User: What shape does this take?
Amino acid sequence: MKCTLFKEGRRDYDPVSHIVFRGIYHEIRCGDLKFLTDLSGDIKWIFREGGGSIYEEGTLFRRTLGGRWIYYDSSLYGEAFDLAGRYYLPLSIDMPPISGLDRERQLLDAGLEAWDGLVQKGCLGACYRFRDTKGLMSRSIGLRHTIMGSVPVVPPEALFFDYDLIPVIVKEGCLANCGFCAIKGGADPKERTLAEIRGTILGLRDWIGCDRVNYPLVFLGQNDALSCETGVLEEASNMAYEVLSIEDNYFSTSGLLLFGSPQSILEKGIRDFLRLDALPFTRIYINVGIESLHGPTISALGRPFDVILSQKALKFIDEIHDATQKLEVSTNFLISPTFPQEHTKLLEDYLVGLEDGGKRGKVFLSPLFGQYESIGAIKREVFRLKARSLRPVYLYFLIPYA
Ligand code: SF4
Assistant: This one.
């Protein structure tokens, strides 16, 4: 067993075709297992050598700040890069998008058992205060207490930053309450007051402690933060930037992430987005769920936004990109083998209907939960759509965070 404290990893988030670790961390090697913890002594990565894919001889798991586990599936290698923009596909162990992750679950459990053995038997000595799985569980609950809620999903762009984000809830719940949605949280939407948001951010500062240096991103939650007043978004973002010392993070970047809807984006004007563009973060990412441009599909999904509204939102997104520098508004569309052909045709028309090829804004395709039998089937559909698209298209699996 070998314990190395305060290792310095990469300072960038460039896609790399072999395993790299980022930020400042502690590393504990034990046989074929490598554990990486954050500066609070909480496991952040587990890597098991051997029996892995061509990407690296091993299997890699990421634990979010909120205690959720993500398996970095690297079996598709170059195809994964084309699909997701990284050399792996992130698959939630807690909410797997397809069946068949039993082996990975077992490997993760075995890794955690070995970790508990190391911590509880005192094998790590007094070199640092590491938490066993019970301690990690309390810690995750502690985060939910601190933010006074959960983070059922994070925007797709979080993948490009290894999920190194701090969640700040500015608005609870989601007005849309779509019938198909598994992550809406159910509650009536409630915008938090600036005093509540400030209390949460101060709580997060203390809860995360010195590990804050490893977090360049702030996520404004929950599922439609864009529907908050622009002044609230500005205040909350500036407050988070200052109180959480985002400027002093270990990396050469910073970012703000939030979700929007066709309605919330159209309730704002270009001036509102110019105000957001002026926030101190390096980049600002807004992900807007469009889901479908086919009326009957939208109705079947139980979504309250009509197609005209969504089309207006798509047009407005192009205008926002023309007017701003740092803002990147991406869209989300659902795919499913059960959808009518008209849904797919309208999606294809949108993907090829770009007037000027230089616009920002990725399109994320999200498989309807439980409708695909294998990654292979999802992969074929995404590649088929991507091959025709003039817009940057990526696959997006929902990742619960806390
Ligand atoms: S808008 Fe998005 S988060 Fe809200 S209920 Fe609909 S699908 Fe779920």
Summary: Residues 174, 176-178, 181, 183-184, 223, 261, 289 surround iron/sulfur cluster (CB under 6 Å).
